[in-house]
Target: GDP-mannose 4,6-dehydratase
Amino acid sequence: MNNKVALITGITGQDGAYLAEFLLKKGYVVHGIKRRSSLFNTERIDHIYQDPHIENRNLILHYGDLSDSLNITRIIGDIRPDEIYNLGAMSHVKVSFDIPEYAADVDGLGTLRILEAVRLLGLAEKTRIYQASTSELYGMVQQVPQSETTPFYPRSPYAVAKLYGYWITVNYREAYGMHANNGILFNHESPLRGETFVTRKITRAAAKISMGLQDKLYLGNLDAKRDWGHAKDYVRAMWLVLQQDVPDDYVIATGVTTMVRDFVAMSFGYIGAKLRFEGEGVNEVGVLESIDQELFIKNVGEEYFNDFQQNVGKTLVAVDEKYFRPTEVELLIGDATKAKNKLGWSPKYDLAMLCEDMMMSDVKLMKRESYLKEGGYLVMNYFE
Ligand code: NDP
Ligand code: GDR
Model:
């Protein structure tokens, strides 16, 4: 057991949930900031939630928002954390084109609010800060693979806001000697990934289609290439960053890049479905060519096979230009040599393991939906 206290902004998100679990296992007292919402928004951390009425809790949630300096300052002042992980953000790149000012406020100024609160409260020497920086900073390809020395060229309001977050973190480290660090994390996914990010959208859809709960999957740019890792590996890296004597910035990535189209094929492959892609640009489609019956039955279930078989020759994947971005990031591939050498970090999951983990989880989830539908209960049918 250690007596360290950590504060996680964005604890209800994908990374926040994995990180909270990771830190609790290490004996930390974990505080998290959650936003007020009209519905419960703690689904990802419900399994570690502790009743506020019990004594000696080690997971404590506070209402808050990164756009509210007074709230942030009060919480940090009350807790006096040893470590702050600033994961809270409006994290959807496409949505940031719709709400650019909000993205700038939360993702950019939100970082400043954390740093300045720590400084004003006299915690500059005590509190170590992790800033959730991103491979989106690289944006327009300048060089590959991308490392800590690659120039930035952000391509979305999200990435521009995160650029401010990156530099203000470096500035507070240099100006005030704070232990302020950037993790420049490449895309990382998991069964807890938000449903509108591309990998999860794909694995959910493949699972739904296999059970007749969805007809077709509509996607945007199938040519985009991403360096996808597993969120479980990446939260371990966040912690390692804060355990170093000297603050610094690190790229965290797998070093392998994959096209969106290939992730689609891999996900459908898990259910034994072989897709044939034909056509170009907005006219490209993915047609179900054949099914490996044994694999389908093993991973989905015999009861769904006959219906699914009717889809052979049909289009299961199509392009909808509404998912294109005004400016796109075409190619990301990270060089995490520094993290490997200095933090001793390397990923345990490769892409096939990640995809399998997500598919297994979504097939299970959709089976529940399928049973509910059969029982006459409403099934959530909203997908984006
Ligand atoms: P999620 O979108 O899953 O989670 C974001 C979290 O931030 C949620 O808890 C969300 O709350 C919270 N949040 C949103 N707006 C505010 C606000 N105004 N005030 C306080 N909290 C807010 O993101 P991830 O877990 O995937 O990512 C974590 C961080 O890492 C983000 O900063 C993201 O930009 C960054 N990042 C992510 C990468 C990835 O591939 N996942 C790669 C590189 C960086 P709620 O649940 O209520 O919506
Ligand atoms: P990204 O992740 O923008 O890299 O940001 P996302 O999964 O949204 O997109 C990855 C690539 O897939 C293409 N794409 C689609 N994307 C979505 N969301 N929906 C689609 O239908 C679709 N079709 C194709 C995109 O154009 C893009 O090229 C994520 C977020 O977690 C950020 O917060 C984080 O900083 C970066 O990863 C690293």
The chain has twelve helices and 15 strands.
